[in-house]
Amino acid sequence: MQGPKEELHFHTPAKFADAFPYLALVAGTRTAWPQEAPIRKRFHQHVFVYTTGGRGLIELRDQRFLAEAGSVVWLDTAQAYAHSCALESENWRYLWMGIEGHGLNALYQFLGVQQQPLFVPKDPVAVRTAFEAVCGFLADRSPATDALASAAIAGLIADLLGPRLTGREPEDGSPGEDRLLTVLKAMRDDLARAWTIDDLAARARLSPSQFFRRFRDLVGTTPMDWLRHERINQAKRLLVGPDAKVSAVAAECGYPDPYHFSRDFRRLTGYTPTKFRRDGGY
Question: What is the model's pTM?
Answer without folding.
Answer: 0.60
